[in-house]
Amino acid sequence: MARLANLPRHGAWPGLIILGIVFVWAMDWRAALMLAVWLTAWGINVILSKSDMSGARILVPVIFGVTLLALWEMAVVLYDISPVILPAPSDIGVAFWENRGILWADFVQTILKGALVGYVIGCGAAFLVGLAVDRSMFLQRGLLPVGAFLAALPIVGTAPIFVMWLGFGPASKAAVVVAMVFFPMLVNAVQGLKASDAMQRDLMHTYAASYWQSLIKLRLPTALPFLFNGLKICTTLALIGAIVAEFFGSPTVGMGFRIKIEVGRLAMDVVWAEITVAALAGTGFYGLMTLLERQLTFWHPSQRRG
Amino acid sequence: MSAIDANPPCAFCLRMRAISMAVLPVLVVVGVIVAIWYGGAYLMNRWVTLDTAERRGVEMTFEEVFADTMAQERPRLPAPHQVAVELWNTTAGEEIFRERRGELRPNPRSLFFHAYQTLAPTLLGFVIGSLAGLMLAIGIVHNRAMDLSVMPWAIASQTIPILAVAPIVIVVLNAVGLTGMVPKSLISAYLSFFPVVVGMVKGLRSPGAMDLDLLRTYSASQPETLFKLRLPASVPFLFASLKVGIAAALVGTIVAELPTGARFGLGARLLTGSYYGQTIQIWSALFMAAICAACLVAILGLVERATLRRMGLDR
After folding, report:
1. Taking residues B210-228, what's their average pLDDT?
2. CB atoms inside a 10 Å sphere around CB B103
3. pLDDT tens-digit profile of B229-254?
């Protein structure tokens, strides 16, 4: 028995794998084909990750992602899955290209007019309130626990209320986004403003720096990592808020609206294309903030490389 | 002032003073919020009241207008006490089960019933998602190929508005024939999965080189290192990500109830409320959701404190 367990270590892996594939083939050739593709890709990844190749960090996840897409495509084609349940990635790509006009209009409506406006207003307001809270110990003691509590609540639930108040247009979406991003941003802003050392603040004091001088020269720069942490968390929240709010009522354009309508028409390829847009927008938005962070907080230990 | 300073302060007084220092500001802030809420309710509901008065040709004093704005049936913004009354009536005022056609059925008027409809899939999904996340994290820490393949996707997936996708998953699973609790709990499992993966990978890697070296000198095997060093060291990280995960899971279940025309659950309450303009119902469902979220996080916080204290890590 012990000898059997030791087999893989003695280079018997390929044999075992081929044996397994043959075994599965006997039961279902389609599953065997997919298993073979998966194991090949995984084998390449294992070899790549053990080598010291410089590109492995990028290549390995790309291979993994492409393999998943390939398996998805194969599963849909081989098992003849209805496009109503799960469209193949290629169908989604085609739908993406054919509906690019609609998708762009939805993107402008939901992301630019709804999420982005709400994001700017919400994060800006939270930052200003953070400045005010920072000046008063009493407000810090009172607002911070309440803010932390509210930040953990399902604030998306306020969407129907805002839609009722502000109508179906982008204003209600922006309002939901403001409500969603405000407290996470506030908590981060207040934490960030407290991040400078007592020593550093004392130094500013010995320079006879005014509140504003010490704020701009010392406390804002030390707060930046926290501010960006908040800004990054809020990107995803903003998109979620804007899309979910559209489920409660919207004009006949917008990502949430499109998802709702096309699900009803069982046009799943368009729905998945819309999800692709949402994913791209989310990653892009987050990536933009990360780039900005890298530019502005290059001095922080978390940004050092090599 | 001097009388207090003269005597050495008793422990009890110090404790009371510390508590009041912590609690008083919170109470003041909550009080201000409630006051603003009442003011907003008056301002937003005023127009309906004045309109009806004008149509009837009645002159109303300020007190009458104010009283009316606080007691409308479908106000634009219900006053806090209206929401509180509705919450009380639909929880304590309604039986959770009632007799119907000779058998005991859950009462759809009880908010507890709706909360249960939402909480059960949340908890089921949370357990599934956390366990799966834990497994994946253990795999990632031990296998470099897995780490390089999966980790970038796990991190990128956190920037994607997954929640907006929830409705589709529900509809598709319904088409396949899965209904009831499973689709909803899959959403919440998915949402609690990634925070746990990311947090636990950090946690399992938190033991320093010294600790790992020590276990090597003991000739500890990988499973032994995992159970005796890595897992205990990752417990603080585990609780931090569990708290994020359970909040996300609850939101996921609520959103999952929106587009499918679910009849029961807090999300369904929100949706039917918004269809029929029942603002008080929306607000009470919202508060129930908030109370559930707060309770779940608080329970996890208590378990965390107890665990960390037993492990000697609370500091």
Report:
1. 90
2. 7
3. 899 889 888 998 898 889 888 988 88
**Does residue A87 lie in a domain region?**
no
Contacts of B18 in chain A (CB under 8 A): none
If you search the block for the tokens 């922006």, which residue do you land on?
Answer: A174
A65 contacts chain B (CB < 8 A): yes
Q: Which domain holds residue A283?
A: 96-303
Note the pLDDT tens digit of each residue in A125-171: 999 999 988 888 888 888 878 877 777 677 888 888 888 888 888 88
Q: How far apart are alpha carbons A91 and B11 in whole angstroms?
A: 72
Percentage of the residues of chain B whose pLDDT score is greater than 90: 11
Closest residue in A to B176 (Cα) is: A85
- Nearest chain B Cα distance for residue A288, angstroms: 12
pLDDT at A218 over 60: yes
Distance CA A35, CA A230 (A): 42
- Cα nearest neighbour of B167 on chain A: A260
| CATH topology for the B103-311 domain | MetI-like fold (1.10.3720)
Q: Do A282 and B148 touch (CB under 8 A)?
A: no
Cβ separation B289–A60 shorter than 8 A:
no
Asked whether the beta carbons of B285 and B270 are under 8 A apart, the reply is: yes
Please check whether residue A50 touches B, CB under 8 A.
yes
Q: Give the CATH number, domain containing residue A276.
A: 1.10.3720.10
Kindly give, in sequence order, each residue whose CB lies less than 8 Å from that of residue A237, ignoring residues fewer than 6 positions away: A177, A180, A181, A184
Q: Check residue A10 and give its pLDDT.
A: 52
- Residue pairs between chains A and B whose CB atoms are closer than 8 Å: 162
* Number of structural domains in chain A: 2
